[in-house]
């Protein structure tokens, strides 16, 4: 995806999140233990403002607490506008400063698009009226981001600083391999396939069709949700050492 593609997805998922959450602020969020929908919305408003601050200043900024009650809905919308303005004002040809060091100029808008899509799913699960799949191309990029940026950052001691409700774990150092295969017809050959090797220092990833100790097949959206512990295993075709996949899911923290 190019940088111009993310803002529309970010806006659409923010609006879906608010639609799912409005009028249900006191409901528990099953995928974020101890969180209410109100807290979930407040979190999204804060991470949008945090990303905007990084884009404006190149570092962390002080973010005010979210307002209580129904006022949080408008606060989230205001945060989205602040983030949108910061994205539009940033130089698209200059690397962005991030918690994981300098990254390409699409980093923050992609990070927020993925983050918001995941939390939109959280709100929809809390509402109990069904979920809308994450955009296929965004889901693929979300998986790339997890293995290419977030887990390596965690391996360097950055756990808890991923900007989300939690951080994803891995069976680090096992030497085991996991093959993911996205079954979406729109994806080109190899585009939706990952072979992940859990090396001693950090996972190594290649886009390839290959056998792993465990293989998982399903739509890209579902694979992203599985990796972030938001989808049950019965939605997938699983081959090989399923215990490795269970280990991964047990290490995902919220």
TrEMBL record:
Membrane-crossing residue ranges in chain numbering: none
InterPro entries the UniProt entry points to: DinB/YfiT-like, Maleyloyr_isom, MDMPI_C-term_domain, MDMPI_metal-binding
Pfam family, one: MDMPI_C
Domain Mycothiol-dependent maleylpyruvate isomerase metal-binding: 11-123
Superkingdom of origin organism: Bacteria
Domain MDMPI C-terminal: 138-245
Chain segments annotated as coiled-coil in the UniProt record: none
Protein name: Maleylpyruvate isomerase family mycothiol-dependent enzyme
């Amino acid at each position: 995806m190019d940088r111009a593609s993310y803002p529309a997805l970010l806006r659409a998922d923010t609006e879906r999140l608010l639609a799912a959450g409005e009028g249900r602020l006191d409901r528990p969020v099953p995928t974020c233990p101890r969180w209410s929908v109100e807290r979930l919305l407040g979190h999204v408003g804060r991470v949008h403002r945090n990303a905007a601050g990084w884009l404006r200043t190149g570092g962390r900024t002080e973010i005010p607490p979210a307002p209580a009650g129904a006022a949080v809905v408008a606060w989230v919308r205001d945060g989205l506008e602040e983030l949108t303005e910061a994205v539009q004002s940033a130089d698209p040809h200059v690397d962005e400063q991030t918690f994981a060091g300098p990254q390409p100029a699409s980093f923050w808008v992609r990070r927020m698009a993925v983050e918001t899509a995941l939390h939109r799913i959280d709100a929809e699960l809390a509402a109990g009226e069904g979920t809308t799949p994450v955009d296929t191309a965004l889901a693929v990029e979300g998986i790339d981001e997890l293995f290419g940026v977030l887990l390596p950052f965690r391996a360097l001691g950055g756990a808890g600083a991923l900007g989300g409700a939690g951080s994803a774990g891995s069976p680090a150092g096992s030497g085991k391999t996991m093959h993911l295969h996205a079954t979406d017809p729109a994806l080109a050959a190899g585009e939706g396939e990952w072979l992940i090797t859990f090396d001693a220092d950090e996972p190594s990833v290649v886009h390839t069709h290959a056998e792993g100790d465990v293989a998982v097949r399903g739509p890209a959206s579902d694979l992203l949700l599985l990796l972030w512990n938001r989808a049950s295993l019965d939605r997938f075709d699983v081959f090989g050492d399923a215990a490795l996949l269970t280990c991964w899911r047990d290490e995902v923290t919220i």
